[in-house]
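Quick bug: Exonuclease domain-containing protein output formatted oddly.
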Amino acid sequence: MFSVLGLFRSVKCPEKPSCSRNPCPFSHEDTHLVPQLQFPKIVQPAAASTSSEHLVPAKRTLGDVSASSPSSSLALEPPKKVAKTISAQGRVRTTVPQAATTPTGAPLLRISPAASKIAVPLRQTMLSTLWKHFSELYSELLPNHPDLARAHSLAQEEEVYSQSVKITYRTAMISCVARVKKRPKPDSISHPSVGTEAEIAKRVLESKAPKSIKYPRVQSSDLESLILSKEKQLELGYVLDPPSSPGGVQPSLEGKVYPKCDRCQKAFLVKRLEHGPETCVAHWGRQVFDKSMGEKQKIWSCCSQPLGSTGCDIGVHVFYENEVADLHARHAFSYTESLSASVLDVVALDCEMIYTTGGMRVARVSIVDGDGKEVFDELVRMDEGVSVLDFNTRFSGITSLDEARLNLVSVRKALQSYIGPSTIVIGHALENDLKTLRMIHPRCVDTVELFPHHAGLPYRRALRALVSEKLGQSIQAGGGTSGHSSLEDARATLDLVRWYLANTKTARLPVSQSSSNTNGTVDP
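Here's what came back:
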C-alpha cells in the first residue's frame, strides 16, 4: 500500500458518519476551514495615503481616480474604446491602428484589394514614387503647406488609375512621374506647376477660353470666299453628279454575303436582327499612336490594347459603303432643288447615321440658320425593306426610330423649304452628310478645309478637338453612353466658321454687342 499523503484532510468526508474506510483520507472533524485567498500587497507613497499598505482591487470603477493620474480632468474621462475583431480561431484580438503614411513618409493607399482593378502593392509603389517627386517639386512650398505633396500625389494617382486598364497603368504612371519631374519648381501656391495634371489642364483651358462676343447673322456675302471649288470638292470626296444608272433599285442587301464587316473585317451574311445575325467581336475605337512605352506604336483608343488583340466589344456584323454607284443603288442621288422662294441664305447642317441592311443610313437631320437657331431637327424613318442592324448609339445617340415620321424622300422635300441651290451649307466633313442624304449641292463651306490637319489629307481634325481648341467649349461629352447630338454639332460648326471669320485677315465680321442670339465665341 502507498502511504497517505493527507491531500484531502481539509475536505469533509462525503460519507460521514457511516464511513467504513480506515484510515479515511477525508476529514471527519466537525469544523471545515476553507483556505483564504491572499491578495498581493502594494506599498503606497506616504503623501498619497495615510496607511502604508493598500490592497489592489479586482476591478477599478470609472469614477476611481488613482494618485498616479497626471490630472484630475483626464482621470475622470471614461476609457477610450478599443476596436476588436474576431480572428479565424475565434479569439478576440485588438486591431492595430493603421498609420496614415508608410515608414518612408509616403501616403498610404487605403483601399480593399477586391475593390481595385489593379494590384494594390503596385499602386502603393507607384504612389510612393509619385509622392517623392511631388515632394521635391514642392520643396519651397512644404514649410507652409506640409500636406500639399501628399494630397496631390493621392489625387494624381487616382486620376491615372481611373483612366487606365490593368495593362496600361504602370506605363501611364511612369509617364506621369516623368512629366512631374519636368515641371519648373513653383515659388508660390498659385504657380502654374502646382496641382494634378487634370487641374493644370483645366486652368490652361480656362485661361485660353475666349470671351463671348456676339455677332450679327452670318450673311452669304461673308462666306463667298470660303465656298469650296469643284476641284476641292472632288479632293474631299463630294459627289458632283449622280450616276447614270437607275437609283434606288436595291435598297437592301438582305440575304446577300457582304465581303467585309465594317468592324471585324470578315465576310458575313446580311440578315435582320430577328433572324439571328452572327456575333461580331471587334474594337469600336480608332487606331491611334501611343508613345508611353518609349516607342511609337499603334493601339486601339477604346481599350488601349495593341493592334492584333482580341476585340473588346461584342455586337453584330455591319457594313459601310462609300462607292457612289453602291450608294445610288440603295437610294438615288439628286441635285438640290428649291421648293420656296424664301429659302435661307446660310445654314449649318449635321446628320447622325446608323447601320442597316442597306448600309449606313441617315437617321437624324439637324439644321440651324445663320444665327444658330434651330430650323429643322427630325428623325428619319427607314425606307421600305430596310431594317436596322445597329443604332450605333455610342456615336449617333439614337436608341429608337419609333417617333420618326418622315422617310428620306419626305425629309429631302422638307429640306427644300430651307435649302435651295443658292444656299451656302456649312458642315464638318460635309461630304459624308450630303452622301447619306443623297444630296448634290454646289455651295459648301467645310471646316475640314478651314482647319486642315497638319499632316494633310486624308487626315482630318475632329470636330470635338477643334471646338475645344478654338472655342474653349466641350461637345460630344456623352462618350460611350449618350453619343453625339447632330443639333449640337451643327451649331458648333457654325461657331467655328464665326471664329474663322473673326480671326483671319481675309475676312472679318463686325462686332455687334446688341445681337439677340448667338453661340459664337472668339479669342479675346
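Actually, after a second look the formatting is fine. The longest helix spans residues 120-137. Closing.
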